[in-house]
Amino acid sequence: MHYSRPLIAIVDANTLAAVGLKQMLQHVMPIMTVETYGSFGEFQADAPERFVHYFVSMNIVLQQRAFFSEHRRKTIVLTLSLGDTSQLSEFHALCINQPEKQLVRQLLMMVQHAHGGGRNLPPMPPVLEQKLLTDREIEVMSLIVQGFINKEIAERLCISLATVVTHRKNIMDKLGFKSVSALTIYAVMHGYVDINKI
Q: What pLDDT digit, counting tens, does each position of 62-76 carry?
């Protein structure tokens, strides 16, 4: 069976912001393919209708308002502050100028709102549906993403500090993650942790 991955476009002249957001989106929605464009012209030349969502810098949305208004259900405006959205109230907005933990949380909330329980998304490829972690590793992961330090996790689960460190390393190795943010996204998207607890 062939799985076609839905496409997301990021349209932002700030390459660093676009690349960083692409990394986060690929963790939040691993079934998506994310393309980046440095200008509206590049984006428009690459069949924009095929994308399910557009993450677009505010200045590009303002310059090309007619196009994005017509596609407002697909468009998420990237703003630098929460107060920037008054002139773009018809669109969903994502403030990119905030700590990583809040940005991840906001992205996860957007995904859950639009695609709760996998709504409007294709089925996950079987490799992404496999249970990779043991029950104990899931318990440890849940406490890590809720902000508990190793010592507190050891006390809560009545295990040694060395065991917590080993579980933590095994979790990151099995999932191929390097950061707690990536782990947080995984835990929320797979239903291991309620978004309100992070």
A: 999 999 999 998 999
Structure tokens at 76: 């998420």
- Written in H, E and C, the secondary structure of 40-61 is HHHHHCCCHHHEEEEEEEHHHH
pLDDT in tens, 130-163: 668 899 999 999 999 999 999 999 999 999 999 9
Of 97, 196, 98, 94, the C-alpha closest to 147 is 196
For residues 25 and 28, give the distance between their C-alpha atoms in angstroms, rounded to a whole number. Answer: 5
Residue in 139, 140, 160, 141 with CA at minimum distance from that of residue 151: 160
Place of tokens 């972690």: 133
Phi/psi of residue 37, each to 5°?
-135, 135
Predicted TM-score of the model (pTM) = 0.67
Report residue 54 CA to chain centroid gap.
Answer: 14
CA gap 164, 160 in Å, rounded: 7
CA 73/CA 110 separation, integer angstroms: 13
